[in-house]
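Problem 3 from the worked examples.
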Amino acid sequence: MRSASEGREATITILLVEPDREMARRVEEVLAAEGMRVIVAASREEALSHTDDGEVDIVVLGLNRSEGMDLCWRIRERTTAPLLVLAEDGMAEATLARGLEWGADAYLEKPFTVRIFLAQVYALLRRIGGFRPGHAGQLQVGGLAINVTQHEVMVDGEPVHLTPTEYRILSCLVRNSGRALSHRSLVKQVHGYDCDLDEAKEILKVHIHNLRRKIEPRPHHSRFIRSVRGFGYMFERRRYDREELDRTLTKP
């Protein structure tokens, strides 16, 4: 492990996983020049070792044709930090789409400019900035209002009583709104321990059911807490129900 900005005060930590050493050096220099702390992982094992303890704010993952998308999945299983994929020029569209389905938040195809790279990094930081610990976090979607800092949840102006576990689940989903969290990752953040997939699903099943019953306009047609089949859950910040959105998109 090495840090390009050791000895400097930095509020943002980036984990950079890039098999191309020259590309890694250039990306590291760009991020360090922005005052960010950069951890460069030289191997898959080293990369995964930095994703279990909340050490990083963003993961930048460089992929080439010989590097499978399974690393994207394995990273997402261990951290909710935004994941930016740097894709080799000409990678198949289906491969890139699978990366997004498996937890990547965005991707850039090489080569790219410094301007567009930094724009992506700062866009991801803005996305989590309002809901990171220590920041005032407020969200209102339709009749649902959540104040993460004050631990308050309101539906149509009326306070909603949540159990401590329900609140921790909702708070975690809200801080990562728009991004799927795996069952195991969610349990680890809420309860502080790791478990296998089946146990994680069972732990969450009842709590998610009760959360939906308390905050959803139609609990059996969830608007806010969406199940991501085979993976976990995500909180969606959208103005319209999925049916309305789908109709808009499919109109001739």
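Problem 4, a separate protein:
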Amino acid sequence: MKRRNKFFPLIVFCLAIFFVSFLVAAEPADSKPIRLKDNLFGIDFVNSNQGWAVGYYGTIIHTEDGGKSWTYQPSGKTTPLTDVDFVDSHNGWAVGFGPIILHTTDGGKTWSDQKISEDIFLTAVYFLNEKKGWIVGEWGTVLVTEDGGNTWNSQLSGKDVVLYDICFSDELHGWAVGEFGAIFSTEDGGKTWVIQASGVENVFFSCKALDNENVWVVGIDCTLLHSKDGGKTWKRINTGLEKIMPFYEILFKDQSHAVICGQGAALYTDDGGTTWKPSRFKKSIQYDWLYGMIAADNDIWMVGENLKVFKSATNGKEWEEIAINE
């Protein structure tokens, strides 16, 4: 189970919808669907063997052997899935453009729709357990369920901002981040959300709460913020990266080891975020963007553009690309 987050500017969604619509309109009804390279945006593992990743065109891929082989799971969707979260090997959720909320109770063999009244796109999903979870999306939307997604209720909505990620340190303390430097926080499980002053106007794509006080946020223009007081104050951290690029995801494997991934680069720390160093890849990734990440036992997994899946057994210092069977 993870947090997760995901980078989905409106132009990305619009382009995805355009190309999907074009293909559907251009193909004869009895023709074989065209297999396109799928960009992946979210990944989750429940143990060292079982994992799922989601992306464009309703893509869901699944592994049961620690990434040695991957199979497609039918989602019934053709629009982007932006995030996925499993609480165990059976129960999981995927969200995306539509709005789409998919739920499975059999490890992804079958997926069913869950309905909401809001006509919005959804960007991230986070479940504490089989019953309670949250979803965020456009218009400052935060939705909560306490019955496994049978019903969803709005905790925050109507704000002129897209929220891209949500994270919790426990059942009460959480943060949601998004456009224009927006950071919302709650100390009562989402009954009330308050805006926190980030001090910047950049888009935030990912957040990670290590505990009720220690929170990290990343975003566009190499933005990395850290709070030691639950978000009352934020400090911008210099990673030492020479080029300016968007950071799409931050993942802490433990208190000391963390990874940031973004546009054509990844960084790692082994001292709790005091210093950051470039990760090493066997092949150049300078033209690829990297997005979703998750830790599974001793490994860290990362996904991104063109169906890329990477695995690190060195806490993000070195990465190997995992071949996907298409």
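Solution to problem 4. Residues 10-28+35-321 form a domain with the Methylamine Dehydrogenase; Chain H fold (CATH 2.130.10.10). The longest strand covers residues 290-296.
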